[in-house]
Amino acid sequence: MPVFRNPTVSGVARKVRAFFGLEAGVTRGALPEPTSADGHSAGVVAPENMIWIFGTGRTGSTWLAAMMEEPEGHDVWFEPRVGTIFDPQRFQRHGGKHFILASQYKDVWLRSIRNFILDGANARFPELAGGYLAVKEPGGSVGAGLIMEALPESRMVLLIRDPRDVVASWLDATRKGGWQTRRRGEGGLRAESLADTKPNAFVRRHADAYLKHVGSARRAYEAHEGRKVVVRYEDLRTDTLGTMKRMYGELDVPIEEARLAEAVEKHSWENIPEEEKGQGMFYRKATPEAWREDLTRRQVKTVERITAPLLEEFYPKRPTEKQG
Amino acid sequence: MIRDAWRKVRGRGMLEETGGMRPENLVWVFGTARTGSSWLSAIMGEVGGYSRWHEPLVGHLFGNLYYERAGHRSEDAHFILGARYRELWLGTIRRFVLDSAAARFPGIAAKGRGYLIIKEPQGSMGAPLLMEALPESRMILLVRDPRDVVASNLDAHKGGTWTADLMRKGGKEKPPSLAESRPDAFVKGQARRYVRDVGNAKKAYDAHGGFKVLVRYEDLRADTLQTMKRIYSELEMPVEGADLARSVEKHSWEKIPSEQKGEGKFHRKAKPGGWREDLTARQAEIVEGVAGSLLRELYPVRSTA
Prior knowledge:
The structure holds two protein chains of two kinds. By secondary structure, chain A is α/β, with parallel strands linked by helices. Chain A has helices at residues 9-19, 61-69, 82-85, 106-124, 144-150, 163-174, 179-186, 194-197, 199-223, 233-238, 240-251, 257-266, 291-294, 297-306, 308-314, 319-323; strands spanning 50-54, 74-78, 132-136, 155-160, 228-232. Chain A is globular and about 50 Å long. The N and C termini of chain A lie far apart (67 Å). Chain B has 15 helices and five strands. The longest helix of chain B has 25 residues, at 183-207.
């Protein structure tokens, strides 16, 4: 049997408690069914204490997650990529009843997705009893809709950033010598990038990716009935502590202000060593609207055209820009 | 005492996790598209006591992330399919499949007997994960000469063929295909896909400790009934000879109406070695170059090498 071959002590204790009927399980919403009867996913991580961070890469999710990891009783699950598995767009053509995610059997597979996530969380964070688990999942935002549907009690952060800055950041990261290119090279992956050979095509592709990822996360946010908040990277940069307080307030997560201030200070841009910042580095500029210097006019127009619905919603043009 | 209680808990969980569906009653058909899996599964699904699950794509669901999108993260403990938690997530995949199967085929689940044929050629990328998660299941590795597979796909993806009809039924127009604009590039892509799918299915087959059988499409065409009998025998599954013969007859190539067969149709040629007429010499070389290793392993005699 592949399951539980090496159970942890706490895991065994949970099963034994469940077996003797000593554990009542966790109260949950209407959907989906709680857990398998062996208490497998009724573990230490309560779904209502999970805070999902969706959006896309280069929106400051690493920074946000680092701050969220600091307070006592809080932890971060760093990019599980579970959302990538459950990307409904990948299977658009397969809508028949035989498809594993067929709508006719949604209650069954939503429960499976729920257990899949909770099992993974419980195994990785056995010490988190009663605490909060932030799940940094920008790269899995395509599956945000199904994840939030499977875990309706969970909280959600929609983290966004001006798509022009996001694309500019990727362009820098993926050029020759950029941090992403270096990482790919170490992994034996193709180091040459469109960013160097066909930058305009690269920009188009990443604008498409932005629309896909943030668009999915946006739809999940709209549908989610639990606690949720939109956080703009630009607001985080302007007033980090104020934005963090607002975020926790809207998520209804109690947080000690002094500890939060410490976390904000510890992870501030100013505290990152100078040699770790700059062009080609993971920490690049952190300057909102730097796209004005980084992208060509044509590239800006490409991003604006592709991401128009999101850009207009979250970054409406100022009157002077409209006139221009 | 704890050890004893643990065993009981685990045992209880096992019964409930399956929703009544027994993993040993699942028969997976892996390979790749255009290997005759629709034909094979139709024959098997027709026989009494057998049902067919037509392309759940669960192998693609998990295999895509594990092998393609994030394979480089397998040692990362945070990765949902990371190596450190392999047993845990294999268990979850197991329940995912069994719960879904039980919901769709409650008759088999309730009786605890009967077999479910799972036609999953396009999910073959994830075959190693599925067979590791369900070691009691049975497995058919269905293969076909990669040159014929690629030739069949080349025909299928041209304009106005059955794949376009299929998309139209789903409310979409088939976009222009490389099969027409750059056929050699298309051939290369399809050969790579063959290696990915059949390669992973073969890995799963080699590692699988349960009942399994390797079936060549060419043998099915040459002597369908005998090949089918061998399948049931090697998988140790019961079958009524007369039932099987009827099903073989019903689904024979000759019974398919002529107007449903031919170029651009789902039922095209069913002719082993047809690639010699369908592919250019350059295209055949491309396939042999990309899929040469599997070709030599699966077709040692027929290789052009």
